[in-house]
Structures are given as structure tokens and as C-alpha cells.
Design brief:
Layout: H1 2-9, H2 47-54, H3 104-109, H4 120-126, E1 129-144, E2 151-164, H5 165-169, E3 177-187, E4 210-220, E5 225-232, E6 243-244, E7 247-248, H6 264-268, E8 278-285, E9 293-302, E10 322-333, E11 345-359, E12 382-399, E13 407-417, E14 426-435, E15 445-454, H7 457-468, E16 480-493, E17 496-506, E18 517-527
Length: 528
């Protein structure tokens, strides 16, 4: 039923997620209106004009660029169209008259492949139902380096339906948004054949099956408090990427060590990552009544089995080993969108406590390809209560004066994990994205990013001890794994992404056993 509805209506990539704390409307006019006056915030006191402004974004819904720093991000991977900017009119203001777009120009510039057939999506959006969908794929091969030569392909199809309960029920008050997301993954990954600690294909993993990605109720109570609870994942809201130009900044890369969050936190704790969904809840406090400051807390079930193929629709606590308790502080500065006003800057600092009982790092050495027999004689124990923290920074470095759709953004992060249990207690990422490669290609991107993973020195020292004592034959002491990626994001239409790239991997598997590997990759996405 859901998939049939998606195909009939033409799912697009809105994956819209919130009821705004303050309406996000077109930029204020520079001349007085004859039908109403403007408030200092740029809003009109004329009801009809205000309604027209609020609908100017067509079926794509109201996008909250103002929330780009701390908003929930249901899909932490790319493929959606860039937001248009506060004062920019939608590409086509004419109602779509039938199943097909009115013109080729409208087809290329609409936000989804199917557009707005017979105006159905606009009608649904006006009545509180936002439907979204997309196809996304990763392909990669290593012509040299690693354990063996190979090429792999994986893809994902996703369907999202958001219900604005105020509009849907005709209420006079804000009642929040009900989120539903389901997806299906299939294919194979290249990580095991190289092998590497972090997969070079971010769409692969978490069980190649159909699964529930989100089923939750999100509520913006006022300018100061927001909440969400249900089947969610931690990656949406803690140590998440900031949004630039309406897109996930970290996920301008295919390497899963960069997209969609610094991967070591998922390796070191019960952090729930996309596409899995866990019972959980969070609360966000905005002390100044805006996005300038954030204080955030969460609680999530820790379930090591959730990514299994048979657990795609698991919605209970059976098999849970503990509770993941994160907190995050944030500071944001910037204009209402990335096309006007001050340049965006974000800083986030956070930490977590995981109540699960797990083996210490000597019991997890298999991550580095070390056989269990190597742990004989090691101080192997169990630990209850893992902890860790992170620091994130991102900044829009510049915006072209001649064309505000073109600009450059930078990000960096550092993640730290409990040295008793962490596979990778130190982890760093950094990246640079240029949007608007040429004057004629304002939505194309070129991105350069890197990640560095440092192995737990306890494991390194233990394997070196075995080698010195003559018991380490065939063992390699792990040290670090580094990767760098360069890619070009080509957008021939707003709903289509083709992103070829190159990756270079140093010390695959964090050991000096295999030659450094070069990868040729391609990401494709179609937003419906």
C-alpha cells in the first residue's frame, strides 16, 4: 500500500521533519505592500498575503534552514535537492495539470522526479501529509591495493510519510508531527574484501533487508523546548552533521568513515545509527528561544542485534543490553539561510554514558583481524558503563558575491572513547565542500574529505608483547587507518545526483599487512 501510494503520487525528497517554531517565509519586500504592512520580522499582517507566502515553496513544504545546526535529520545521507533560499521562488509556480510535468524546464527543475501530478502532492501537503522517497546507490572498486581486487554495488530505496497533526485534524493548536520511514537495502560492500575498519560505501550495512527507519512523534512545544520519542536512532540528533544549503554536509562523501557521523562512536558504544531504529527519546532546550544555543539530552535502547537481517521491524526491548544516555551542547551563528545574511558557524560538544556490560578491548580484537587465541593470557574482563565524548566544528568559509548559490563550507570533528573498551578511542574527520563549481553549475559540488582512526594502544602493545615473546607469529599490531576522498557531485536535474569519486586508503584494516588501496567509486540518487 505504501509503495503504491509512493509511486502514484510521486514521492520526493522532502523528508520534511518539523513544525517550525517560527514560520519560515520569503524575504520581506523592500517596498510597502498595498494589501498589508510588514512587521519588523518581515511578516505581513494580511492573512491572505501571509498564506500565499507560506505556500510559495510548493509541495516541497516549509524547509527550515534556520534549524540547519540542530534539527533532526531523518536521512543522514544525500540525494535530496538543495534548498532554494529564503527569497527564491520555486522553479515552477504553475499547477501541474496532469501526470507529467507541464514542460521540460519544469521537469528538470522540480524537486522530485514525479513532480506534483494533478497537484496531488500540494493538496496532501496542505492537508498535513508529506510524502517523500528516493533511490540511492553506491558502487566502488579497487584497481590496486588491499587484499584482493574487487568491485561492489549496493543500493537503498526509502519511503517517508510525515503527518502534521494540526493540519490533518484541523486543530487550532500545534499537535506535532508523526514520522514514518521505511527502507530496503540490498547489495554487497567492499569493506570486507579490502579489508578496512570503516566501509568505503556508506549505503552498505545494517542488514540488507527491508526495515523500519523511524516511527515517532516530534513536538515543538514552544521556542524553547522540542521533544521526540518512538522508534528513532541517535544519529539523527547527536554528533550529527550540520546542514548546508539544505543538505547534509558530512554526506557529501561516500566513505562511511565520514558519512553520516564520525564512525568510531558507533564502534565504541551503543550509539544507534541509521538505518536502524531503537526505542528512544530526546529533549532539546533553546535557552535564547532560537538556534543560537542548544542544551540536549537523550535516552536510547542499546540493542546489538538490531542490525540483523531478521530484526528489520523489531520494536521491542528484547535483547537490549542497556541504555545509551547522550548529551550535547551547541552554539550556532548565521543567517536565516545559506544564501543571505551572516555566514553559518556551528560548534557542538557532547558526551555519553552507556550502561551496557561489555568485554574490555582485549575481547574485541577481532575487529582488527586478530584471532581469539591471541587474547589468551590478556587481562580480559567485563566492563559496565562505557563513556566518551566529541567535539564538532563547521563553518561556511565564503559565499560568492556574484551568485549566493555558490559557496564553500568546512567541517572538522574529534571523537574520544573509553580507553578500557573502545576499539578506536581517537578518531578525527575533516572536509571541505565547494558548492557551485562553475557559474553555469551552481548546484554541482566538489568535495575533499579525510578520516583518521587510531587503534586502541592497549591492543597494539599487547600484540607487540606477543611478538617479542615469540607468540605473535602471523599477528600484526594495529596502529591507524587513514582515508581521503575527492569527488564531484553532478546534478543535471534537481532530483538527480551523479557523484564519481576517488578514495585512497592507507593501512587497510589499521595494520601494515596489505598495500595501500585506491578506490574508484560512484554514487547515484534519484529523489522521487
Amino acid at each position: 500500500m505504501a509503495m503504491a501510494m509512493c509511486m502514484l503520487l510521486g514521492c520526493h525528497s522532502a523528508f520534511a521533519h518539523t513544525i517550525p517554531r517560527k514560520p519560515f517565509i520569503s524575504a520581506p519586500k523592500t517596498t510597502p505592500s498595498t494589501e498589508g504592512t510588514l512587521t519588523p520580522d518581515g511578516e505581513t499582517d494580511n492573512a491572505q498575503e501571509k498564506a500565499a507566502l507560506l505556500k510559495s515553496s510548493s509541495y516541497n513544504g516549509l524547509k527550515r534552514d534556520e534549524e540547519k545546526a540542530f534539527a533532526s535529520t531523518p536521512l543522514p545521507i544525500p540525494g535530496d535537492s538543495f534548498s532554494r533560499g529564503a527569497a527564491e521562488e520555486p522553479a515552477s509556480t504553475a499547477r501541474q495539470k496532469g501526470l507529467l510535468p507541464n514542460s521540460w524546464h519544469d521537469f528538470i527543475n522540480q524537486d522530485g522526479f514525479f513532480g506534483d501530478p494533478w497537484g496531488a502532492r500540494t493538496w496532501l501537503s496542505d492537508h498535513g501529509i508529506t510524502v517523500g522517497g528516493r533511490y540511492f546507490s553506491d558502487s566502488a572498486g579497487n584497481p590496486f591495493g588491499g587484499k584482493s581486487r574487487a568491485a561492489r554495488y549496493a543500493d537503498e530505496e526509502a519511503l517517508s510519510i510525515d503527518f502534521d497533526l494540526k493540519k490533518l485534524a484541523g486543530l487550532e493548536f500545534n499537535a506535532g508531527v508523526l514520522h514514518f520511514l521505511t527502507l530496503a537495502r540490498q547489495g554487497a560492500g567492499l569493506g570486507n574484501t579490502l579489508p578496512v575498519i570503516n566501509s568505503p560505501m556508506e549505503i552498505y550495512g545494517a542488514g540488507e533487508t527491508m526495515r523500519l527507519g523511524r516511527l515517532s512523534w516530534e513536538m515543538h512545544w514552544n521556542h524553547y523546548v522540542q521533544t521526540e520519542f518512538g522508534e528513532i536512532n541517535t544519529e539523527n540528533d547527536f554528533e550529527q552533521s550540520s546542514t548546508y544549503w539544505g543538505a547534509n554536509l558530512y554526506c557529501q562523501f561516500q566513505n562511511n568513515g565520514i558519512c553520516g557521523m564520525p564512525q568510531s562512536i558507533a564502534m565504541n558504544s551503543g550509539y544507534g545509527f541509521y538505518p536502524t531504529a531503537h526505542p528512544g527519546a530526546w529533549v532539546k532546550f533553546f535557552p535564547a528561544g532560537n538556534d543560537h544555543y542548544l542544551v540536549q539530552f537523550g535516552v536510547y535502547s542499546v540493542d546489538p542485534t538490531i542490525s540483523g537481517v531478521r530484526n528489520g521491524w523489531k520494536m521491542n526491548l528484547h535483547g537490549a543490553t542497556g541504555t545509551f544516555l547522550p548529551f550535547q551542547l551547541g552554539w550556532h551563528q548565521g543567517g536565516e539561510d545559506d544564501y543571505s545574511g551572516p555566514l553559518q558557524t556551528n560548534v557542538k560538544v557532547g558526551g555519553y554514558w552507556d550502561t551496557s556490560e561489555v568485554k574490555n578491548v582485549y575481547g574485541q580484537m577481532g575487529t582488527y583481524g586478530i584471532p581469539p587465541s591471541a587474547a589468551e593470557g590478556a587481562p580480559l574482563t567485563k566492563v559496565r558503563g562505557r563513556f566518551g565524548g566529541w567535539f564538532q566544528f563547521d563553518r561556511m568559509l565564503q559565499r560568492d558575491e556574484a551568485d549566493p548559490h555558490r559557496g564553500t563550507a568546512f567541517f572538522g570533528s574529534f571523537t574520544w572513547g573509553d580507553p578500557r573498551t573502545a576499539i578506536a578511542p581517537y578518531y578525527m574527520t575533516a572536509g571541505l565542500t565547494r558548492k557551485g563549481t562553475f557559474a553555469s553549475r551552481p548546484d554541482d559540488t566538489i568535495s575533499l574529505g579525510m578520516k583518521v582512526l587510531w587503534a586502541n594502544p592497549k591492543v597494539t602493545h599487547w600484540i607487540q608483547h606477543l611478538q617479542r615473546s615469540g607468540r605473535g607469529a602471523g599477528l600484526y599490531a594495529p596502529h591507524s587507518e587513514e582515508a581521503i576522498e575527492l569527488n564531484y557531485g553532478y546534478r543535471p536535474a534537481r532530483w538527480l545526483l551523479l557523484r564519481p569519486g576517488l578514495q585512497y586508503l592507507w593501512n587497510p584494516g589499521a595494520i601494515k599487512r596489505y598495500k595501500d588501496a585506491m578506490l574508484i567509486d560512484l554514487e547515484t540518487a534519484i529523489a522521487f
